[in-house]
Design a protein that fits this description.
Elements: H1 2-12, H2 25-40, H3 53-92, E1 99-101, E2 106-108, H4 110-125, H5 128-142, H6 155-171, H7 173-192, H8 198-217, H9 222-240
Antiparallel strand pairs: 1-2
Helix pairs in contact: 1-2, 1-3, 3-4, 3-6, 3-7, 3-9, 5-9, 6-9, 7-8
Length: 241
């Protein structure tokens, strides 16, 4: 129970989208212990060389590392949405303002907060939490509690951080292209009509076009959003293969 709880705690307490849900700490601990109680029956016997304190501490450290790898995959997936929001905020001009996330007490970009909430809704809508539980159950078979960190294929999960930028650009590519065309048009107008205040006009125009194209493209971005989470799930499967 202790070892499985340590593996689950890194995912369901520290990783998104679970970390962003304002739930009391005691409730999180109860959920983790309850999930561990459900999984411990199907887990192989822990690989323990002894019941001394040093062996138990090493086993708990191994479980924290395994849970941290699962959490890193979720961080990489949601980082793609944060990057996409930052990119749009910079282009539209919302980068000068930010929101305060009451759950984490951190500043968040305006559109980045919207995309992060959309990603959390989509994650639960495609039963991502159930896939995560199945993967954790599979990890208990492939990596029994108290095992060795050397048996992990961490490269597949680390590679997710290299792709989160490309996934983020893929999510907002239509809006970025439209805003780039607006910049080209404003640059042409500033050369042909220098008496116009192109800066003030372009700010309002970019906000209007950016929000309109965002509203049109988001309902069509389900496939791209699913690819982000599918890449994370596939990386976990390759790690456990």
């Amino acid at each position: 129970m202790l070892l499985v709880s340590a593996r689950l705690a890194m995912v369901f307490i520290a990783a998104p989208p679970f970390a962003g849900i304002p739930v009391p700490a005691m409730a999180r601990i109860i959920v983790v212990v309850a999930l561990a109680a459900g999984l411990v029956g199907a887990a192989p016997q822990a690989v323990m060389r002894g019941m001394d304190v040093e062996a138990l501490a090493a086993a708990v450290l191994f479980e924290v590392v395994v849970g941290g790898i699962f959490a890193a995959g979720l961080f990489a997936a949601f980082a793609a949405f944060q990057f996409a929001g930052r990119l749009l905020d910079f282009q539209i001009g919302f980068g000068m303002a930010s929101l305060v996330d009451i759950a984490t007490r951190n500043n968040m970009p305006l559109i980045g907060a919207l995309l992060s909430m959309l990603a959390a809704i989509f994650f639960f809508a495609i039963d991502g939490h159930l896939v995560l539980l199945r993967l954790i159950h599979l990890s208990l078979e492939k990596l029994p509690p108290g095992g060795s960190v050397a048996s992990l294929d961490i490269a597949s999960v680390v590679a997710q951080f290299a792709t989160c930028f490309s996934f983020g650009l893929m999510l907002v590519a239509p809006i970025v292209l439209c805003l780039l065309l607006v910049d080209f048009g404003m640059a042409f107008m500033s050369r042909t009509m220098p008496q116009m205040n192109v800066f003030v006009m372009s700010m309002a125009l970019k906000v209007l076009i950016g929000l309109v194209v965002l509203a049109i493209s988001l309902p069509l971005a389900g496939g791209a959003i699913r690819r982000v989470f599918d890449a994370t799930f596939n990386a976990w499967f390759r790690m456990l293969a």
